[in-house]
Each structure stands twice: as C-alpha cells, then as structure tokens.
Amino acid sequence: MSEKNCWQAVVDSLEAEGVRYVFGLPGGPAHLYDALYDSKVVKPVLMRHETAGVFAALGHARVSGEPAVCFGSAGPGVANLVTGLLEAQSACTPVIALGVSSAMQHAGLGAFQETDQLALCKPVTKWSFRVTTPQRTPWAMRRAFSLTTNGQPGPVYVEFPGDVALRKAEMPAYRPAERWLRTAPDPDRLAAAAKLLAQAKRPVVVAGGGVVLSRAGAELLRLAERFSIPVMTTLSGRGAIPEEHPLSLGMVGLYFSPLGEQTYADADLLLIVGSRSEEFQSGAWKFFPAGAKMVQIDIAADEIGRNWLPDAPVVADARLALAALGERLMVDAAKRQAWQERARAIAGKKAAYETEVAAECRDEGVPLKSKRIAHELSEVFGPDTILVNENGGQDLWTYAHPYYQVRSGGLCVPPGEQTCMGFATGAAIGAKLAAPDKNVVCETGDGAFQFFNEEIASAKQAGAAVTFLVLNSFSLGWPKFGQKRLGNRFIATDFTVQPEFALLAKASGCYGEQVREPAEIRPALTRALGANRDGLPAVLEFIVDETELPYGFQSYYERTGR
Predict the structure, then answer these.
(1) Which of 2, 7, 95, 530 has a CA positioned 20 to 30 A from the CA of residue 308?
(2) What CATH number does the domain located at 363-560 have?
(3) Structural contact between residues 318 and 211, judged by C-beta atoms closer than 8 angstroms
(4) 271-292 pLDDT, tens per residue?
(5) ∠412-417-418 over CA atoms, to 5°?
(6) Is 1.20.1250.20 the CATH number for 187-351?
(7) Rounded to 5 degrees, what are φ and ψ at 3?
(8) Do the Cβ atoms of 100 and 74 come closer than 8 Å?
(9) Is the pTM of this model over 0.85?
C-alpha cells in the first residue's frame, strides 16, 4: 500500500488499464488534472464542451475496442455529460465518466455547484457510484472497467466528492479488471438455430452493433462466404463486413437500397446478430419479411424477443456464436449449390446497381448534390477510412449504400438511436486519436455542425487531423422534410444567418475551403486529405441541394406512414 489521494489512485488505475486519453475540461485545479500532470502515460485532451468530451470518448472506444474516459467538473460540468452518456448508453459503448461533486461535509447547505449528480447520471448509465471513502477508489475503478465492458457494454459514472477526493489514505494496489468476458452459446440452442438456418432457402444475415463491439467481423465473413449468405447491417453494425464485398448489401430499414430492400423482403429466414431491431432499423417493426423465420443472437438475455419474437434464440457473445454456428451448420450439396447460385445472382445485380449509381453521381447540378459528394468521398478517401456519421437529412447520403461504402480496413462511427446532434464532431476527434494511421472523415450537416463547431480548435490542439465535411443546405433538413409533408408549413428551419464554416476553420489554424461547383468536389477532397496527411484538420463546406433524399429514407416514410 502507498498513501495517495483519490485522483492519484484514479490515474494509477487508468495507467494500469491502458488508457491513453481523458477527454474533457478541468474544473477545480486540484481535481484529477493535477494528478494527470505527473502521468507519463495518460494525456488530457482539452475539449471546448463537456458533452463533446463524451462524444470523443465514444468515438475512441468504438474504434479502439477498449473503454474510453471523460471528465466533468461539479454541477454544470457533470450535467453536460448527461447528453453524451445518453448516446453512449444507446450505442452500447464502453465509456467511463469521472466526476467531482461538492464536498460531503457541506451536503444540503447550498454549497457552490451542489447538485444530485448521481440522480442525473443513473438513468443513462449501467452503473453510477459515489466514492465516499478514499480506500474504495481502486475497487470502484476496477468495477467501472468491468461493468463497462462485460455483458452488454455501456457507460458508467464514478463520482468523487471534493473533500473525499483530496484526502490521502493508504491505497490498496490496483489490480486491473477482467474485461470482455465472453459468453459461449448453449449447445442445444445453437443446434436449434443451425437446424433452422439449414432448412432455409433464402437466408439473410442482419449484423448489428454487437458484431462490431465483439470484433466478430472475421467470423461473420467466414460464415457468409462459406455458405454464400448475403449480409446486411444496421447502422451500428456497419463496418462488420467490407461493403465492397459481393455479399454485402448495405443497411436495413431507413437505410435500404432498392436491391437490399428486395433481397431482405424475399428472405425466408433472418439471422439477426447483436441488434435490438430498433425503430429505424426495423421500419417501425413493420419490415419483417412475410412468413420468414428468425434466429436471434444477442449477448444480453433481456434483448431476446424485445420486439420481434425469434424462432431460435441464442444468448451469447457474437464472435463465439458466429464461430460456433459456422462449425455446426451443415447443408447438403444441393442446398449449398442453390445458395451459391442465389449469391451469384445477387452479386450480379449489385454490380449493375453500382454502375447505375456511379452514373447517377456524375450529376453536374448546382447547388451540389450530396449523393455525388458521398460517392466521390468514398473513392478519394478509399479503404482504411473511418466514417463518423452525423444525424441529418443530407447526411443520409453517406449512410446510403453504395453511394458511400465502408471498405476494407475501414469502420463507421455512428450515433446511437438517440442521434444527438453534434455527435460526430467530437466523436471524430476520439476516432482519429484511436487510429492515427487511418483516414478519418466527419460527415455532418450545417445544423448539426453548429452544435459543436468550436471543437475544430480542439482537433487542432489535440493533433487529430480529421476532415470535417459539412453539407450546407442552410436549413435543418430532416425537420424541414417533415414540414413539407405537413403542407409546406415551414417554420424555424432555415438559417438566414450562418457563419462561413471554411473561414471558421482558417481562424482555428486549420485548412478550410468552400465548394460550390461540381468540378471542384474531387480536387477539394484530395486537398483536404493532403492536409490531413500533413497533420492538419480540414473543413470542407459544400453548398448543397436540400431537396434530394435517398431511396431508403423516402421508402421508409411511405411504407410506415410516419
């Protein structure tokens, strides 16, 4: 044992757990950051807003596959964490939020920034805990790392009262948590799932975020290729399979391509892995293929049958379950040949559709078409690119397959089902710090970007050379789409006053460019990528047409009656 205060013990735990960054802002100078001053391992990343700090941690965790850490000071600092924790909970992402509160000895007296912070954080975390005795610090941190990663991942919050946190005590030596403990499938349940799949004529895999979190992409690809089964993903499952692969048909629900929608609707069995089948992914739970059977694999037992009831439920880690299913599944030669012929036919249709999309994306119209920007972004940035998605109308073109493809070596960092506006700006910083050798592009609309565009400066200061691609329609596109459907009752959705984002970038010492002409799209993307490779964040502001929206988005609203 050695005598330390709580924050010194916290830093010891972060170092032992392999944490490299803490995202946020310091509050009282003695809390956490003074202890970080002496660390040679853990670096503070100074954000401009605490919520963006949680988003950055979320992006880092998604890309690194390990828990990430953020910090909030007392009162409003921790309150600003709540929106980000809500998103991390929705996205099942391992984020540890650390907070300081007003002193325990002054509880109830109206101390400066006194707030019931545990009550704020409990609804949006797996676990919220206040350390009231300094010696409990190593236990609390080990528990935080265990809970955030094991089972269904999610955020946790650990709080230190100001007086307790600075009190020195004999601290037990820190012992790192056992993380990513994996649950194997029940053999009988697995056998039932394999039998049902073997009986299918037109199976389709739907891979959710659990496949990405489990790092089960190789097992998914092995199963798909061995048995010629087409694969679709949810938004959070994107990147589980390279989207240029002949068996990859893009995303489900709101994000359908015409070919994906057709193949999905024709399926007689869905193998859904690591997905809650939430509203946008399921078409408001109306898009289940008629007469189809369903196998559901999920790490959390309470996700089984949350909405659609499976014919064969399997509670297990996605990687172990997919590997075991691939070994257990047996089909005869005739069935294997039939599946192969179907896969070849689908691959031919996919290639033809991609040719159509490429031709469509040569559109020379002004204002610029977002679909062309998405398509050229995919080609210029290429493989090994991490796409960080935002929530908005024009943003949907980078969700639409195959306008943009998450290719080999790449990944997608999407918001969770909460889709907090401004998420992508912070998340891209964390993603780049997690994978400095990858290209990272944050794709956002002008409305969402204005939530956190001050984080351009955070990216520059942190050395996170990201391209922020702003599709500027001078409006809130998704709400405006809804107003159009209400009879063009447009109100409070047009930005008649707005900054020029390229100039904001330059003011922060970053590369900035505004693009209005189609011929300048590809050269601008190439210049931004070059700036990134020189270590400089870039902002590309494209002035776009607000009227065009992807097929899947329009089909969703027509079919669901939303």
Answers:
(1) 95
(2) 3.40.50.970
(3) yes
(4) 999 999 998 888 889 999 999 9
(5) 115
(6) no
(7) -85, 120
(8) yes
(9) yes
